[in-house]
Amino acid sequence: MLLPRQPILKPVLPFVDKFIKELLPRNVVVITGTIPSAAKKFEINLALGINYQDNAQRSPIAFHFNPRFDQNYTARNTFQNGWGPEESNSPNSIFPFYRGQTFEIKILIAPASYMVTVNDQLYVQYNHRIPYQRVNTLQVLGDVIVDRIVLQDGSSNYSEEMSRPFSTPITAMTYNLAVPFETEIAGGQMREGTTICMSGRPNQAANKFTVDLFFGGQYGRAGNVGFHISVRFAERSIVRNTNINGSWGQEERDMFKFPFEPNTNFKMKIICESTQFVVFVNGQYLCNYRHRLSYTQIDRLRVEGDVFVRSLMFKYML
Question: Residue ranges of the Galectin domain (predicted)?
């Protein structure tokens, strides 16, 4: 049985073992090992049973993580009466596994998703399709040599050795996003120290674009907006506000200089501090905005309007 903080050393594959208790948010499954020189693929499954054979009796899999070396990508999926739609790497992502080299994989159970780091760099995020509370088994199969498996329990009394890898900033980046778009805040929620870096270019005939940090609401429609930024070119103003239960508060517009121009590249940085958001554009301070609701409730970001987003990066602490 997989016990919190009790490592399993050099297990024989296929490895199939049950968790002794229900998974909880901030549990972390850590697997270290080596990729054989002739490896083709391996898989890590957070499953709802021990049957890993590819047949009608196969146990459901909440999270299937499947690096494939001939194709240089990692498939992610869920198995429940058949495979669901597969998720794989974006063309700009880096395949972090190399034949003949060691690795360390961490799978963090977050409230809304699994978050996977490889060698301390955030690699993929996978939204739950089956409640993580139903997962009871870890399966490791295929072309991989496993040195160590350990379940970190997420408690405040981690040993220093276990907590160290998640005490450093983790980065998640995506590229060339079609607007409008909406995404989960990396890490599952806004927290003190979260930094959002967005680069892009307003359209040639831009009228306005908006950035919303929010929670609740349906996809494509923001709910409670903790921080609303509206860049308005005709007015050459940047309006900031908060929307609580459908009602907008008092606008803030003061700033030193309007830093955006149509068809001109920009870089925007939004930093969450304990009492306020601080915004920089092209390395210059733009404004600060005091929190009007608890920033820890914010779990999504939405961008829409007359802008092309070249890249979006989250930096945050776990």
Answer: 15-152, 182-315
Q: Are 151 and 4 in contact (CB under 8 A)?
A: yes
Put the strands of the sheet holding 61-68 in their side by side order: 15-18, 137-142, 42-47, 61-68, 73-79
- The letter for the amino acid at 263 is N
| Cβ-contact 236, 261 below 8 angstroms | no
Q: Are 297 and 238 in contact (CB under 8 A)?
A: no
How confident is the model over 198-243, as pLDDT tens digits?
Answer: 999 999 999 999 999 999 876 556 679 999 999 999 999 999 999 9
Nearest of 272, 238, 15 to residue 141 by alpha carbon: 15
Phi, psi of 166 (to 5 degrees): -100, 10
Taking residue 97's Cβ as centre, other Cβ atoms within 10 Å add up to 19
Place of tokens 């820890």: 296
The C-alpha atoms of residue 144 and residue 175 are separated, in whole angstroms, by: 31
Question: What is the rounded distance in angstroms from the CA atom of residue 225 to the CA atom of residue 217?
Answer: 10
The DSSP secondary structure of 200-216, one letter per residue, reads: EEE-TT--EEEEEEEES
Q: Which pair of tokens denotes residue 304?
A: 């829409």
Distance of alpha carbon 18 from alpha carbon 3, whole angstroms: 9
The secondary element (H helix, E strand) that includes residue 278 is strand 276-281
Q: What predicted TM-score, i.e. pTM, was given to this entire model?
A: 0.54
Distance CA 88, CA 104 (A): 20
Instruction: Catalogue all structural domains in the chain, each as residue range(s) with its CATH number.
Output: 8-153 (2.60.120.200), 173-316 (2.60.120.200)
